[in-house]
Amino acid sequence: MQLFDVPSEADLNRDNILEKIGVLRLKKLDLIIREAVQSFIDDYGDQMFWLSSRTIASHIHDNMHKCCKKLLSIEDKMRLVTQNNTFKLILDDVNLVLQFKKFNKKKLTSNIPTNACLAFVRQSPTLFPSFVKLTVGYRLNKSSLSGNFLEETMIACHNNEYANHWSTKISDAVNSLIKQTDSTVPSQVPTRTYKISPKKDLLIISQTE
């Protein structure tokens, strides 16, 4: 695999990255986030309107860590790394590293501006050299009348602390990859068969589908 110090535009390209992650891993990430949010709602749903956004994010972040430990398997090829009260997933086979965060309405993440945090969102080679840094997470809708507080699960590639190279719903990413796969599978043409039936001294050949 080609290594780099600073990722190129091709390295940061959305379609390239989503294809590297693949449908199965995207679905697993979506499941981890959904279970983490649902676990929080089960435990604190009746207090949700009185809890601060930071407290909610902290609880869900801890839940996502627990869900990673519970749901990830060797077959997923996503290695869980925990350090200094933070955790990330390493996809060694495709040179990607993922962190888990809450997204705001602008589809950006709120970060305490530590050196490590800034290095991550700025795609700095000083942190996880030769890896593209991505963020997966969620957006909440606390005012949902239906009780469906999880608005969407997302994946984003940061440019810096103020902007993303791109962001998309995980469900949209999965659907896009499935459509690409379907379009590359050739349609099956019915196999033609023939039967031979005797009629007097002649053989009549008729075509059947």
Essential attributes:
disordered C terminus; alpha+beta; 28% strand; six-stranded mixed beta sheet; 209 residues; two-stranded antiparallel sheet
**Biggest sheet descriptor:** 6 strands, mixed
Count of DSSP H/I helices: 6
The outline comes out as: globular
Rounded Rg: 24 Å
Distance between the termini: 48 Å
The share of residues in helices is: 25-40%
Class of secondary structure makeup: alpha+beta
The topology string of helices and strands comes to HHHHEEEHEEEHEE
Strand % is 25-35%
According to DSSP, the number of beta strands is: 8
Question: Order of strands across the widest beta sheet?
Answer: 1-2-3-4-5-6
Which stretches of 5+ consecutive residues score pLDDT under 50? 200-209
Mean pLDDT: 85
Give a description of the structure.
This protein has 209 residues and is an alpha+beta fold. The chain is 36% helix and 28% strand. The protein contains six helices and eight strands. It has helices at residues 9-12, 14-21, 23-44, 53-71, 115-121, 170-184, and strands at 79-83, 86-91, 96-102, 132-140, 150-160, 163-169, 193-199, 202-208. The strands form two sheets. Strands 1-2-3-4-5-6 form a six-stranded mixed beta sheet. Helix 5 links the parallel strand 3 and strand 4 (132-140). Helix 3 (23-44) packs across helix 4 (53-71) and helix 3 (23-44) packs antiparallel against helix 6 (170-184). It starts with 8 loop residues before the first helix and ends with a strand. The model is unreliable at 200-209 (pLDDT under 50).
